[in-house]
Write a structure and sequence with these properties.
Layout (H helix, E strand, L loop, with lengths): L2 H14 L4 E10 L9 E5 L4 E3 L6 H15 L3 E7 L12 E6 L6 E8 L5 E5 L3 H10 L5 E5 L13 E3 L13 E5 L6 H10 L4 E4 L3 H13 L4 H5 L14 H18 L18 E2 L6 E2 L6 E5 L2 E5 L2 H9 L12
Parallel strand pairs: 4-5, 7-8, 7-10, 8-9, 10-11
Antiparallel strand pairs: 1-2, 1-6, 2-3, 4-6, 12-13, 14-15
Helix pairs in contact: 3-7
Organism: Thiohalorhabdus methylotrophus
InterPro entries: Ferritin-like_SF, MoCofactor_Util/Proc, RNR-like, TRASH_dom, XdhC_CoxI, XdhC_Rossmann_dom, YHS_dom
Protein name: XdhC family protein
Length: about 325
């Protein structure tokens, strides 16, 4: 397996697991640089880079841009080049310039795209509306899990996973997770309990407003978070003149699409930030932004830790640290 194939396989694994990430591909180079067109790397939600897109000076810039892509679900083209190379040039539309003072002197243009993570839909219950939802939701981009007493894959063939119980021990795949309680009188409270316990990002309940309000009161009295309980959408769906379970399911599905976009789904959500010993800092030698949480090169001097994008910068600093004592302040 080539390096590119390995990177793409890792990207597919992140997507399948519903985890955030971004794929970086070198599209153009101006020598001297160790990166070549077609080189690839994937950056995961914790800011770790897997693959190869050039030397150590380029990696912090790629990781930073990848995190931005994960946060706003937008692709971007970055150009990493020597600071003096673009000093007198006007900014180019659609290109984010990153200046560096590394010794290599080359230029890299790298395209960064967030990985596509399908939002998850948990359908709780085996009602006729649940069957229609399970059949249609996958066609508009949801990864569907059905949980219904005694259900099997043959009963819900369109679902990615079928659980024969309203009780789930683990959160289904997909980010964010939306849940629809479609029990319709056969385990309503248990279905709501499961959705709340799994921390679903959006819960819709197919029921009348009166029935939903009574169950909200019961759930709060049993200790469920009041904010999460009050946020349950009931009656579920957008207003339609729905007259049968299939039409009700269409209404609910339309509401789920609205909720998905409100939650920023369809690509990735902003990942939880990884713990870092300090804020992002500047490499005192080359001026690149470095994340202490992922930096491989550091040294102690003057009662503080200094971080570097590569071993070359660290070596230069250690030769005469006093000369750089005023650099490396937080970015």
């Amino acid at each position: 397996m080539s390096n590119g194939d390995s990177v793409l396989e890792r990207a597919r694994s992140l997507e399948a697991a519903g985890l955030p990430g971004a794929l970086a591909t070198v599209v153009r180079v101006y020598s001297p640089t160790s990166g070549k067109p077609g080189d690839k790397a994937v950056v995961d939600g914790e800011g770790r880079l897997h693959g190869w897109i050039g030397g150590g000076c380029a990696q912090p810039a790629v990781i930073r841009a990848a995190r931005q892509a994960m946060a706003d679900s937008e692709s971007r083209l970055i150009r990493i080049r020597p600071e003096e190379a673009g000093a007198e040039e006007a900014p180019e539309s659609g290109v984010e310039d990153v200046a560096m003072r590394c010794h290599s002197g080359g230029t890299l243009e790298i395209f960064i795209e967030p990985l596509t993570v399908a939002p998850g839909l948990l359908v709780l219950g085996g009602s006729p509306a649940a069957h229609t939802l399970a059949a249609l939701a996958g066609r508009v981009g949801f990864t569907v899990t059905v949980a219904a007493k005694g259900a099997g894959a043959s009963v819900f063939p369109e679902a990615s996973e079928v659980v024969p119980s309203l009780r789930l021990e683990r959160r289904p795949a997909g980010r964010p997770l939306l849940a629809v309680v479609a029990t319709q009188g056969q385990g309503d409270e248990l279905g709501l309990e499961t959705a709340l316990s799994l921390g679903a990002d959006h819960i819709a309940f197919i029921a009348s407003a009166r029935k939903a309000e009574q169950l909200r009161t019961d759930l709060k009295e049993r200790g469920f978070d009041a904010g999460a309980v009050d946020a349950i959408e009931a009656p579920a769906g957008v207003p339609l003149d729905a007259r049968n379970p299939r039409e009700i399911a269409v209404s609910v599905l339309a509401g789920l699409v609205n909720a998905r976009h409100r939650l920023g789904a369809g690509a990735v959500l902003e990942p939880e930030p990884a713990p870092a010993p300090a804020a992002e800092v500047v490499d005192p030698i080359c001026g690149m932004t470095v994340d202490p949480a992922t930096a491989d090169f550091s040294t102690e001097y003057g009662g503080r830790t200094w971080y570097f994008c590569c071993g070359h910068c660290q070596h230069r600093f250690e030769q005469d640290p006093a000369a750089y004592a005023d650099a490396g302040a937080p970015a």
